[in-house]
Amino acid sequence: MSISQLQHFFDCCVGTWTTERTYHYLNHQEVERSHTEFVINPLETANKIKVLEDNRLSHAEPEGLPGYQLAFNTVSETGERVSQDLNILFVPRKIELPFIEGDYLRDRAYEEARAMVAYFRFDTRTRELLMTTTYTRVVSVDSITLINPNLRIRRILNYQRPLDNEPLDTVLLAGFGVEQKRG
Predict the structure, then answer these.
(1) Which of 19, 56, 59, 131 is 20 to 30 A away from residue 75, measured at CA?
(2) Which domains does the chain have, with CATH numbers?
């Protein structure tokens, strides 16, 4: 039952979406707005295996893992454009309801152009997917809450990476967005 709730979340995410976001850069007191168009498609088994290999992991049955190809185009209010496409894969490791936890794999990360293993936790009650990625200089905590199959709320917090197991307490960026499905 719990894995089916996670799969339902991802099934709802497949499609074309538009996002309006606001980013608050706390280290230089700037606010920026952006518009993003993105498309999410299921990932074929061969690409799931490649994502696992890129991250030096293996899985007995990769075809059963939730995996997606994500392509997006973002335009900021200043006219800056960013486009990227990447393959992502979720490997559940622990189920203790209401939470499902595991590895969040990408063939290319957002902050650093390399394969990346991160952590995810899905709350089956609130339908919130929380993804935490530790980069070289920052720790990114990205939340996607599925309100209904056509509406998601997004929250992104980038923290200055602390020294050895210190708490996350210095926010460098806070982003908030409303994502609506177009098709």
Answers:
(1) 131
(2) 2-181 (2.40.128.20)
